[in-house]
Each structure stands twice: as structure tokens, then as C-alpha cells.
Amino acid sequence: xxxxxxxxxxxxxxxxxxxxxxxxxxxxxxxxxxxxxxxxxxxxxxxxxxxxxxxxxxxxxxxxxxxxxxxxxxxxxxxxxxxxxxxxxxxxxxxxxxxxxxxxxxxxxxxxxxxxxxxxxxxxxxxxxxxxxxxxxxxxxxxxxxxxxxxxxxxxxxxxxxxxxxxxxxxxxxxxxxxxxxxxxxxxxxxxxxxxxxxxxxxxxxxxxxxxxxxxxxxxxxxxxxxxxxxxxxxxxxxxxxxxxxxxxxxxxxxxxxxxxxxxxxxxxxxxxxxxxxxxxxxxxxxxxxxxxxxxxxxxxxxxxxxxxxxxxxxxxxxxxxxxxxxxxxxxxxxxxxxxxxxxxxxxxxxxxxxxxxxxxxxxxxxxxxxxxxxxxxxxxxxxxxxxxxxxxxxxxxxxxxxxxxxxxxxxxxxxxxxxxxxxxxxxxxxxxxxxxxxxxxxxxxxxxxxxxxxxxxxxxxxxxxxxxxxxxxxxxxxxxxxxxxxxxxxxxxxxxxxxxxxxxxxxxxxxxxxxxxxxxxxxxxxxxxxxxxxxxxxxxxxxxxxxxxxxxxxxxxxxxxxxxxxxxxxxxxxxxxxxxxxxxxxxxxxxxxxxxxxxxxxxxxxxxxxxxxxxxxxxxxxxxxxxxxxxxxxxxxxxxxxxxxxxxxxxxxxxxxxxxxxxxxxxxxxxxxxxx
Length: 677
Prior knowledge:
Blueprint (H helix, E strand, L loop, with lengths): L1 H9 L14 H7 L29 E3 L2 E3 L6 H6 L10 H14 L2 H7 L3 H14 L3 H11 L8 H8 L4 H5 L2 H8 L2 E6 H13 L3 H10 E6 L6 H7 L78 H15 L12 E6 L6 E6 L5 E6 L4 E5 L11 H4 L9 H4 L9 E4 L6 E6 L5 E6 L3 E6 L4 E7 L5 E6 L5 E6 L3 E6 L7 E4 L5 E6 L5 E6 L3 E6 L5 E6 L5 E6 L5 E6 L3 E6 L4 E7 L5 E6 L5 E6 L3 E6 H4 L7 H6 L8 H4 E6 L7 E4 L5 E6 L4
Helix pairs in contact: 5-11, 6-7, 6-12
């Protein structure tokens, strides 16, 4: 992980040149409810899914005699909004005047109006820098930067290094601040109060900034309290507009195909290891036939094309149901056992882990660019025989699948070489035939677990790819990277099928919804977005984390999402209503792993603080206030009940937790590399 963290830190927004902005972000942002800014700027519009390379014109390319500046948000147009400046010497007065007014206003308005401090501070500072009043800018920064909320420290560090007009030209963080309006959610009463104050004072400079650069989402009703606001703010562009979370989301599960499950007797377990069901008269098993009714919140079965089930998949489902019949029912009284896989002497630097659904294999991605696959059952990993040997096999024999494997290749570890940079994400396909890995080298690779060779290298990201994951139905997979874009791929297509653009910084983690119709992405811009696979639209924007997001987990019923970040908090979201419904405090460092138990009773979280924590998920989601009023105004009341929900904390000696996985019988597997510092 050490390698991972360092790399994430170095690639924070504002380090790379502007070229890292995904082309097409300007117009794709229109879909995402972060509407194009009202400024009159030349805007080239294209399909949000057109390939990135087709549109980017690098700064200064001369086309037909006209100089085209990098990317849609035309930098000069964006920055020229700063031309209408006031008297530079009065900026401190303007700001402290407003500050005084807000601090003396009634308590009920003060919390809401305090949200203005940060965006105004940044814009006024940038305006001074842009108009080359460097000494005024410096004293303005020094006088007021200490008043800003602690979670803006990282952004302020970037800001403090921008002291000249030239610095602003090539800086992504700046462009984001410029092009995406900062969103504040304020009650009508507080807004009227502010407007009256600024107009009486004729404080046009601040009023201009409010109108030009902020988007004030006004709601009717009571102003929100300090803790209600604190829960929701902290992202790079303020809160999400309420419209952003209004679209209908089909969060229900798809209907499972029905087939008979032969019941096994205990004593036949021995010879049944290969997972071939015995020839018995099939008898309907209650486990197999549980999901007859269509979930009312589920998407139509054919909303997106999903691969057909093969015979081997059906066999696996049968095995899965048999295992499920023996699953332990977890709860506060019955916590899972935890089995920890520690990577010892991983001097190569462990950067990613995944475990197959049936818990038979574990894969590690390493900073030395290798991918290593282990078998964690007594069954060794074997490759398929060579073509010459395969031609000799009798295709009709019953054990043909056994005969095609080459015993000479059996070993418990296979090393896959191919990447040319640290491997930051790994994912097994549900049928265990394939493995994905993504790397700092900008590629995602698909490996065969039959031959242990690389089948395809998918090139689309030009920068490090931080995460990748297979769809729960196989065939599709998602990747996200430093270019701020997530891409949806299909294994048999060389180009991405969808490009999800809208995040303002690196996409650090990606997860499929259990019904495969949606994808969640977490980003260094401190927001989580939910994307519709069908049309590429952004259907949810969740704000509230105070640091980059590093882990995501959907609840098994598809209704809730848990997210973890560098701020050490786990936040819980109701997807249907688009609301934050809980906050779990306890970890003291970045949360890298989150996983719900198989029936969703327990949420496990794993962190850099060397602990695994178990939380009572049933209780956390029990009696939620999700009435229309809460949804409309964002007056969320988070219960302060982390301590009641925490069921256990388990320390490792000195091993940060990188991955968690519940087996089909609800044993919790955890993994990480021992660090000897």
C-alpha cells in the first residue's frame, strides 16, 4: 500500500499539466446536473462518449491559422471573468466586513452563511493574483486562510503555491474552481438576509463573485444546523444540487434464473469436491426457489444486455446455493470468524488484492508490476496442455475437463508478467476464468486463468488506472484513473462502451451495483457518483467525505451504499432517496476495504490503522427518516450512534488491511502486507 498511497498523493489534482483534463468534460458535465457555467465561452459540444483522442487539441496547436487553447473550458475565457475587479486594497475590508456580518447574524443563519467563506476566499484571492496584485494577494491569503474549515487544508496548500498569473494558466485545480460553480445549499431566509446586506453595503465585488462563481441552491423551510451542514460539505465543488439526486434509480435486484438444486447427503461430500451435482431425482430446494417475485424496484430484466448463463455457471450457482444453505446467520450475537491472509516479505510492495467469489484463489497486484495468483485451497493451479497434446484427447470422455489440464504445471503460485508499472487494481471474473489488472502504465490487462497468459491490453486511459472491477455477471468491467474519467468496457471490445465524465479529480475506486445497471465511482474530489450504465448519465452525487474516497460497497439488497475515505469515516447512503443515512466513526486512518456480509447483516471495514471493524448494518439502516421533506431540503439528522453500531474491533500486529471478503458461508477473509516499521 505504501506505494499506492505515495502515488495517489503525487497525482493529486494540480500536479499534472492541464492535459489531464478529460476532453468532453465540459459538455458531459451538463448531464451530471453540474450545469455548464453561465459564462459566455466558446463551447465545442460532442457526444460524451466520443473517444478522448478525437477531440483534444493541445495548447497552441494552430488550426487554420487560429490558435486553439487546450480543452473545452477555454482557459482564457474562464479566467477573463476576473477582469472586472474592484480596488485591490479594499479586498481585505470587503471580506472582513462580510465575515463580521455573518458572525453577528442570528445563530440559525450563521451556520448556513458561513459556507460562503471558503469559495469567496478562493475567488477573491485568485482575482487578486490574476490581476497581478501579488502583495495584496499574499497578505489577503495570510490574514484569512486560517479561518477556513480544516478539511480544505489540502486545497489551500495548492492555492498558496499560486502566486502569479502565469501559475493559473496550467493548473487543473484552478480550472475546476473556475468552471464548476461552487454549490451552496441555503434556506430562502438566509439568502435574503445576505442579499440585503450586500446590496445595502453596495459591496458589488462580493455580489459579483456570488453571481458569477457560486451556485446557490435555495430551499424553502428552516435553515440547517451546523452539524447538518458539516455532514454534507467538504467536496471540491461544494454540495450536490438537489436536482442531481432526483432521477429514478432502479436499485432492486434482477430475478435469479430458476433451476433445480439436487440435495446432497452429508456423507457424499467427499467425492463431490469438483462440484458435479449427483444424479438424483431433482427435488426443489427452498433455497433455489426463493426469488420468484420480481422486485418492484428492479430494472427491467433486459434493460442492459447481460451474458447468457453457461452450463458451468449453472453448476456454480448450484454449488453456491448449497453453500448458502450452510451459511452462518450473522448478527450482534453471532459475529463472523476472521481469517487474515498476511503477505510476508512483500518487499515488492503489495498494492491490490482480490479473492474469488468461491474463495478458492487470491491475487495480489504489486508495485514491481507483477500480478501473483495463489490457490488457497489444496487444489493447485494448473494450465491447459499445449495444442499438440490437446488434439490427442478424447473429446467425448466424461472427465475431459480434467484431462485438458497439464499436471506438470501444477503449483500454488503463478506470476503474471506484462505491466510496466505498479498494479493498483485486480479483479477476478465471476466464473474464475479471467483476471483483470490495472496499472500505473495506463492499461488494463485481461489474463486467462486457464493458460495464465495475458489475452488483451485495454488502452484508453493515458494516465495511471487506479481501480478496475468485473460486473457481477461477468463480460463487462469498469476502470477509473488519474484522467478523472471512469470507463465501461466489455471483454470482447477494444474500445470502451461508455465514458463517465464529471469528477473533478482522480477516480480512485469503482464498483458495480449488484444488478449491474449502475456503477459507483469514488474520487479524490471527495465525492461519490452513481452512473447509469445504459445511457452514461450521472444519477447520484454524494458529498460529505472530507478526503479522497478509497472504498465502496453496495449492500447485497442493492438499496444502500457504504463509502470509506482518507478521513477515516464510513458514510452510509440510501440510493433510492439519494440521502446520507449514517456515519460510522472509529477508524483513525484511510479506509481501504469495505464489505457487507452475504445477507447484509454486518458491514466490515478495513483500514490503514491496522484494524478490521465490524458494524451492525441491520441496525444502521433500520428506522430511517426518508420522508419527502428530508429528501427535499437535505435536513438530515445523523444519529450519533457509531458506538452502538460498532460490534468489534480487531487489531493486526502491523498490517494495514487492503481487502475484505465474506465467503459463501460468511467467514470473513482479510488481507494485507505486513509492514515492519
